[in-house]
Design brief:
The protein is of the alpha/beta class and about 280 residues long. The protein is about 25% helix and about 30% strand. It contains 6 helices and 16 strands. The chain has a 6-stranded mixed β-sheet. β14 and β15 form a beta hairpin. The radius of gyration is 18 Å and the shape is globular. The termini are far apart. About 45% of the residues are buried.
Length: about 280
């Protein structure tokens, strides 16, 4: 199964962002990719004003484009994440969308973990603009391969990835806008760790370069196999990367080193109850 990760340098210019996404999605499909993953907030990056201006409902232009191009190209498209306007909710949702080769909206996942941190001398407070999601989502490709959905900061929460794997995910998608600082020092380690410990393929599509409002993303989008081998890694520019996923090899890894089967959830109790 050939897959691709698209790396973008999104700005506040939604028309330009969609044009870049369209060009690279078409190029990845022409290269044989049947599952294509876009990065986080690919439709708009920038200030709070820019993000609010770029937000739209799931029946808006971005998802409409995703459904049309997936149908035209005959591919599964994980349309990164967009900022979703949710009826009756003042805050936005950071929502990842999976579209089938028939243009059907198969699944949507709202980012669970908010990026409320201080890194690289800058404070980020995603929760001031965004409402966290409450549902863990596993979808399926056209070929029936289970697809776990995650977004950016979720990568730092192994609990989520383990639940996705236990629920059957064989591939986990990770659209991201990882900061330059954290990409350089944490990105590869974390992506490979999540792949190894859950024996899954991880398709990690990152933003790259400078964005409005002083933001910088680190690029280095990756496709990693269940043994932790980096199958493809992007340079520091807008581009796409492709890799062939050996699903039979994945089954061999899980059979010979059955760490998922050897779990003992009955003793993973929290909080620990002391007995007298």
């Amino acid at each position: 199964m050939k897959v691709a990760a698209v790396q973008l340098n999104s700005t506040a210019d939604q028309v330009a962002n969609m044009a870049h996404a369209d060009r690279l999605t078409r190029a990845a499909a022409a290269d044989g990719a049947k599952l294509i993953v876009l990065p986080e907030k690919w439709t708009a990056m920038g200030s709070e004003q820019d993000l609010r201006a770029g937000a739209e409902p799931l029946d808006g232009a971005a998802v409409g484009w995703a459904r049309a191009i997936a149908r035209e190209l005959g591919v599964d498209l994980l349309a990164g994440s967009i900022l979703e306007r949710v009826p009756g909710q003042s805050k936005l949702a950071n929502t990842s969308v999976h579209v089938s080769p028939r243009g059907e909206l198969l699944a949507s996942y709202r980012k669970i973990h908010m990026f409320d941190v201080e890194v690289g001398g800058r404070a980020y407070r995603e929760s001031e603009l965004e409402e966290p999601g409450e549902e863990i989502v596993v979808s399926h490709t056209a070929g029936g391969v289970e697809l776990g959905l995650s977004i950016c900061y979720d990568l730092r929460f192994p609990e989520l990835y383990r639940i996705l794997a236990v629920r059957g995910a064989r591939i986990i998608t990770l659209p991201a806008a990882f900061t330059l600082t954290t990409t350089r020092e944490h990105w590869e380690v974390l992506v490979r760790a999540r792949a190894i410990e859950n024996q899954v393929f991880v398709i990690a599509a990152n933003q790259v370069g400078e964005h409005p409002a002083g933001q910088q993303s680190g690029g280095r989008s990756m496709i990693v196999d269940p043994w932790g081998v980096v199958l493809a890694q992007a340079p520091d520019s807008e581009c796409y990367i492709v890799a062939e996923l050996d699903l039979e090899r994945q089954l061999e890894v899980r059979a010979r080193l059955p760490s998922l089967a050897n779990r003992r959830p009955e003793v993973y109790r929290w909080p620990v109850v002391e007995t007298v």
